[in-house]
Amino acid sequence: MKLGVNLGYAPPGTNPVELVPLVQHAEELGYDSAWAAEAWGTDAVSVLAWLAASTSRIKIGSAIMQIPGRTPANTAMTAATLDLMSGGRFILGLGTSGPQVVEGWHGQPWGKPLGKTREYIEIVRTALRREVVAHEGEHYRIPYDGPGATGLGKPLKMMMRPLRADIPIYLAAIGPKNVALAAEIADGWLPIFVDPERFDDAFGPSIAGARPGFEIAATVSVLVGDDVGALRDALKPYIALYVGGMGAKGKNFYNSLVSRYGWEAQAARIQELYLGGQQRDAIAAVPDQLVDALALVGPKERIRDRLAAWRDTPVTTLVVGSPQPEALDVLAELLL
Prior knowledge:
Shape: globular
Distance between the termini: 8 Å
Oligomer: single chain
Number of helices: 13
Strand content: 15-25%
């Protein structure tokens, strides 16, 4: 199992430059990849460009670049540029985000995300192969010929010559249909909030048709220390935010995922409290057992024991989400 490090997206008041030493430390330890994300704050592309310039070997990946935030052609240009400037180290991680972000931040219709994602990746790959981009789909029409079109658009191919025409494309997905789409059309999958002991039940049928060599780079929160209770408590606000606040009732993919793991009543209670403005109560409602299921917390020996369940999954890269250099050290000692 390879190791990666996930910087996530920089919280308010944090400069992503402060996280560069963590990635440099991961590279020294032999980590395979480093990932940056975006929501509605710091973008992933700028952070990844900085990381590429600050490292020499470790792969750099977007987890994720938001599909509604960029046209497919712009994403292809960005991917080709990052790959060229990093010497062929870029992994293009894509995701739709959720309807609150898609419509509330990017001003795009939520629509049909599965069909849109399929078309999006098709166009990106066509552009990276330096083929003429001409696409007539339900979601994208290139050249554009809809309302307001001048009629002057013509099919083009990328001016630059990409270093790699086959830049790996991973998809972030949670729901069964989305995961199945990733297994069908992508080179890899980026899951989050994985319960390794329920992995097969939750995802097995969806990834059954994946091609040989399909990569699964799963992010897991890791905190190392002797006070297990305090470490669990440190992660509860993060879990409560996603399970309770990342989406409306009935449209929160993280809530649905935790429910599929068997925490339906607890997930519903966390969401009820969070959406009702009782965030502290929502955090307190996160069970210790749920934290243990989704994260690795405690001293090295406890984390070692918890890794046994991860080794039984088809995950190919364990992506460490942690601000602690010592967490990177512990995982490297246990897995590399």
